């Protein structure tokens, strides 16, 4: 029996990202995986360098966004709100 390749999900992270915006999508795909879907979740940053959340917590990433092969799904957390000067 031939198994299909896992569905690769990239959660895009950047300096200042809100942890809830990273954890929320990851939790959804993890639960789907628990019920039989074959999701593989990866954290990716623009350059592949680790990032720091808005709380100062360091997030280790799996590599750059431009990784090959391409991802099946990308989750992009909301950008921080611009603050007036």
Automatic annotation (TrEMBL):
InterPro entries: Class_I_gatase-like (IPR029062)
Domain of life: Bacteria
Protein name as annotated: AraC family transcriptional regulator
Organism: Sphaerisporangium rhizosphaerae
Lineage of the species this protein comes from: Bacteria, Bacillati, Actinomycetota, Actinomycetes, Streptosporangiales
């Amino acid at each position: 029996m031939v198994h299909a390749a896992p569905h690769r999900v990239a959660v895009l992270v950047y300096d200042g990202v809100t942890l809830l915006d990273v954890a929320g999508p990851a939790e959804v795909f993890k639960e789907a995986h628990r019920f039989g879907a074959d999701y593989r979740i990866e954290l990716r940053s623009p350059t592949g360098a680790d990032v720091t959340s808005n709380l100062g917590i360091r997030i280790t990433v799996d590599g750059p966004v431009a990784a090959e092969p391409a991802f099946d799904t990308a989750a992009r957390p909301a950008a921080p709100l611009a603050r007036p000067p």
